[in-house]
Structures are given as structure tokens and as C-alpha cells.
């Protein structure tokens, strides 16, 4: 009964933004959910630190790549801490153990004849750290980075990815290796069916990387380096005895990512695993991309939302709630400060927060805090199992709305004066609802959930603190 869940290792060219936070919060919620069910969970996060993109960013900042990486990796750790991300392992691709394991893996693939030397000519986008096909470009530019890719021609080592095209296609189409949502599975399949070429796995002119073990003039292609993190975070190294974590947790049960990196993940990554004779992941879940008030998030536009600003404004739990309730998981979405403040006020300040203070107040003032209730479940489990995080939160919100409406309709503030036993019955029901709301929120809003459950179970119920003060726009 184990569960291994991963996020992408994020590039350290900058500190984390709300897009990184979204994937990581979603993974944290799912990890907590699995733990709650009693599974033994390993939750991987980390940073991708080698390659041209990072060394250029370091240079621009006037720092060496290692110092620059240290600073940014720390920024990721700090952000995950304030967002209450309870990861099991934080891997940096500059970790020594990772680097030696990558070299060992490459040596094995080389000895198996799965790596060979050739020449590469193509258009390279440093932003993507990927070669581009001419038909990937819009007006000659990479659509994701608005830059013309560089022409590159160099001797290179290749991985025989083409050898695995058929088996990959079979495993994905049969569902042995699941890719969700279905549209993303189809996208991966049609990409594979259009013909998988061997991939260049080395760079001659990129000094900032892991040297190829069999030819030190080259460094390892940053994506190959990065993919192996999903193994090395478990202490995997093909030269040594299997680590406990590898034995217990391999293969991943769920790998999260956004649609931008599906293609590489659905091809090179499983290709490497097949080459190494390792089991493939059980499932990818691919979510969409956020825009900010209708625009692509970018530093140049100055519209980047930084997670620490979110936490400062809303607190960790409300930030987590706002991220996951903004968009159905798997679809593209749009967020903005304005929409988030509105939703915070509606769902949390006026919704949940108001419900708690109304019910707790009535119980404290009219029953000396002494009402006992039972928790009742209201079916978020199916949604959680299906990774429908947005829908799970909608159900919870509907329960809050129901309870607030129940208070209004029964005019309970009058009943406590005129019909105490009826009031007691209704408050018992409401307290039970609050308890179950608190329990359902546990993976999403861990601190809030704990506070709600403690209050609802207390021998003497008190009005307590205001959890979600209203925020002015
Ligand atoms: N380093 C590679 C991944 C290697 S994994 C072996 C990389 N890094 S990244 O920093 O660019 O992160 C991309 C991921 O960040 C996306 O797949 C997604 O998880 C998250 N997001 C980045 N921007 C996002 C949005 N605007 N919206 C939603 N998620 C976003 O690619």
C-alpha cells in the first residue's frame, strides 16, 4: 500500500511563481489524501539546475551557476515551506549522489548499445532546452518563448529512442501506462505515431552539466539529467545495491506536470526507463496552464504572481484553496488578484468563516458551549480518487452554503429564545456538518481543518478566532 507521487523538478532560472506552486500544492493535497487513507507515501519535489538556460541566467545575475542554483533552490524550499508542502524528498540535480547515478545510468545505456555517436543539426530553443521542428515554430519563433531558436550543428551522442516507439505506443494505448486527461493521452499517442526519432543526449558547448562518463568533452543533455531525478530522489544508483526507498516506492503511482512538458515526459523519460530495464510509471496527470487576467504570465509584462505574496495576503491555507478552486484540474485557467480576493471573501470570509462563527457563537451563548455532534461524511472521496480536486472543493463549498442557508431559513437566532430543543437539534446537525467540512478539508487546508475539527469536538465550544478576516479590494 505505497504511493509515490512526483512534481517536475523546476528550473532554477528564477524563484518559483504561481504556476510552480499550483502543481506542487496539487501534489501535496494528493499526497496528504493518500497518507490519510493509510498509504505509505513518498512525495518528490526538486530543482533542475544544469544546462544553458541556467548558466545564462546565472551569468546575467553576475553569479556562478552553483551559487545561483543554491540561492534559487533555497527560494523554492522557502516557498514550499510557507505553503505547507510536506514533501518527502527535495532533489537538486546538482546533488553529488544524483550526478554519479546519472553517469552510471548513461554508462549502462552506452554499454547496451543504446547510445551512439552521430551528428546533430537542428534548431535549438534555450528557453525550452529542446530542439524544435520547423512546424513547432510560429513566424520562425518558439511560441512559448517568443524567440528565434538557434541553429546548432554538432557532433553528439544519441539515445536510441526510436527503438522503443512501438512498445511505448502499446503501453500508452492499452492504458498500462496511463496518461490523463484523455485528450493528453491522445496528444502523446499521435506524437509518438508521427515517428519517434533518436534524441541527442549530449551537449558539446554547454559546460554547466554532468560530463558524459564515456566522453568527458560532452555534458549530459539537461532533460536526461532531470528525468533521472525521479529515480535518484529515492537513492537509486544502478552501481549500488537497491535503496530501501527504491524498493518500497518504485514505480511512481502518479506524476504531475502541465501540458508544456508532456511530450518529453511521454517519450524520452519512459524510453530511458525501458532502456534501463525499469518499470514505467503508472500514471501521468497533465494539468493546464494559467494565464493572469487573460495574459501570459511574464516578467516583462510584470504580471507574475509570486506565491509569497499570495501567502502574505491570504495565508497558506486560503492560498492553497484559491489555487485549486480556480480551475478544474486538467484544464487551462485564468487567475487574477481581483478574482482571488472576490473568491476569498465569498467562499472563506463570508462562507466558511461566517458559518463557523455563527454556529460557535450560538452554541457558546445559548448552550454554554455544550453541544455534541457526530461527523457525517458527504462523499468527497470519489472526487479525490479521480483527481477531481476542483469538484471536491465545490462539494465542500456546497455543504457550507447549505449550512448557512439552513441557519437563515430556520431563523435559529430566534429559535434559541422560543424553542430551545428545536434549536439544539438544528445546532447539533450544523455542528456535525462543520466537523465533516473540517475533515474533508484536511488535505487542502491542513491547519484550518485541524482548527475546525478541534473546535467542533471540544467539550466546551467557544466562538474562537476569526479564521478568514474579510479583505478589501
Ligand atoms: N525543468 C523542467 C522539468 C523537468 S522534470 C524532469 C521544467 N521546469 S519549469 O520550471 O519550466 O516547470 C514547468 C512546470 O511548472 C509545468 O509543467 C507546470 O508544472 C508548472 N508551471 C509553470 N508555469 C505554469 C503556468 N503558467 N500554469 C500552470 N503550471 C505552470 O519544465
How does this structure look, described?
With 473 residues, this protein is of the alpha/beta class. It has two domains: 2-287, HUPs (Rossmann fold, 3-Layer(aba) Sandwich); 336-456, Isoleucyl-tRNA Synthetase, Domain 1 (Orthogonal Bundle). The chain contains 18 helices and 16 strands. Strands 1, 2, 3, 4, 8, 13 and 14 form a seven-stranded parallel β-sheet that branches. Strands 6-5-7-9 form a four-stranded antiparallel β-sheet. A hairpin with a 2-residue loop joins strand 11 (211-212) and strand 12 (215-220). Helix 13 crosses helix 15 (389-410). The protein is elongated. The two termini are 46 Å apart. The mean pLDDT is 96. Residues 8-11, 19-20, 22-23, 48, 226-227, 257-258, 260-261, 289-290, 297 line the site of 5'-O-[(L-methionyl)-sulphamoyl]adenosine (MSP).
Please give the structural blueprint.
Layout: E1 2-6, E2 10-11, H1 18-36, E3 40-48, H2 52-60, H3 65-82, E4 89-92, H4 96-111, E5 115-125, E6 130-132, E7 150-159, H5 165-174, E8 178-180, H6 182-193, E9 199-200, E10 202-203, E11 211-212, E12 215-220, H7 222-227, H8 229-232, H9 244-249, E13 254-258, H10 262-276, E14 283-287, E15 290-292, H11 307-314, H12 316-324, E16 333-335, H13 337-367, H14 381-385, H15 389-410, H16 412-418, H17 420-440, H18 446-457
Parallel strand pairs: 1-3, 1-13, 2-3, 3-4, 8-14, 13-14, 15-16
Antiparallel strand pairs: 5-6, 5-7, 7-9, 10-12, 11-12
Helix pairs in contact: 2-3, 5-6, 6-10, 11-12, 13-15, 13-17, 15-17, 16-17, 17-18
The structure holds 5'-O-[(L-methionyl)-sulphamoyl]adenosine (MSP).
